[in-house]
Amino acid sequence: MKDINFSRYRRLRQSANVRRMVRETHLHVEDFIYPLFVVEGENQKNPVSSMPGVYQYSLDRLNEEVSEIVELGIPSVIVFGVPNEKDDVGSQAYHDHGIVQDAIRQLKASFPELVVIADTCLCQYTDHGHCGIIQDGQVLNDPSLNLLVKTAISQAKAGADIIAPSNMMDGFVAAIRQGLDEAGFEYIPIMSYGVKYASAFYGPFRDAAHGAPQFGDRKTYQMDPANRLEALREAQSDVEEGADFLIVKPALSYLDIIRDMQNNINIPFVAYNVSGEYSMIKAAAQNGWLNEQEVVLEKLTSMKRAGVDLIITYFAKDAARWLTEK
């Protein structure tokens, strides 16, 4: 053994305290953004069957959920609306008293320090379930931008701290930035879903938001999961158009994309730990196949290690508790 020369990496793994001292990546409660699903009606707390532990809330029940979020130290929520009425142009998305607009007003009045992010899209509000105007079976890009701008402005008027457009129309950041600026909201940041893949991991979300396409799919505007360089082009365009944050969605199967973004673009990045990523861990944990706490914290840490600054996750409340206990 005297003639063998090798490195002893195990020296820095000998105790929990030493491992903590040399840990390179840290997960904090402040990293989390919690998604909320808001429905019309009264006394509604509807479980989402495909997402155990996730609920839709009516406005009169919303504060009880958000009080818990605030008490856990989670600094931000992103709001998704589920309207009773839908039409072909998603008019409830930009109604001054749409479900999201009313939810934003209530949240900012009740929790003024909470950062309220508005998801800005049309799919939950259209009767066809697509993210824009339909003509002859096609999603029209430029006419859809006008409706997205109206939606963003109405959300900003309601008090949203951040606008998060998720529609993947070409030019959506430029159009919304111009619209917000002209309406006097030049200080409202845009958190763009700039790198959004046409993923099979979105299934449970569509149960929660009632936003599944009624025909076809979204592959003509969301990205091909096989493409990497396209993500860089999309992200760079959004930055040039005025994005202040960039979301990569989904997260777990796209950590390589997150690292590419971090290596090439210098703005805050957000991982969306999507519904399918949530539900498959919940299902495995319920069957006793894995330790939910350990797997969730490992997964969220991997997103931070890949390079994101923030994480949108349905695990935010559980993760906040676990981190506090540690």
Structure description:
The protein has 326 residues and is α/β, with parallel strands linked by helices. Helix content is 39%, strand content 18%. It contains eleven helices and twelve strands. It has helices at residues 16-21, 59-71, 99-110, 141-158, 172-182, 203-209, 229-241, 255-264, 275-286, 292-306, 316-325, and strands spanning 32-39, 45-47, 55-58, 76-82, 115-120, 133-135, 138-140, 162-165, 191-196, 245-249, 269-273, 310-313. Strands 1, 2, 3, 4, 5, 8, 9, 10, 11 and 12 form a ten-stranded mixed β-sheet that branches. The chain has a two-stranded antiparallel ribbon with strand order 6-7. A hairpin with a 7-residue loop joins strand 2 (45-47) and strand 3. Helix 2 (59-71) packs across helix 3 (99-110). The longest helix is centred in the middle third of the chain and has 18 residues, at 141-158. The radius of gyration is 21 Å and the shape is globular. It starts with 15 loop residues before the first helix and ends with a helix. The mean pLDDT is 91.
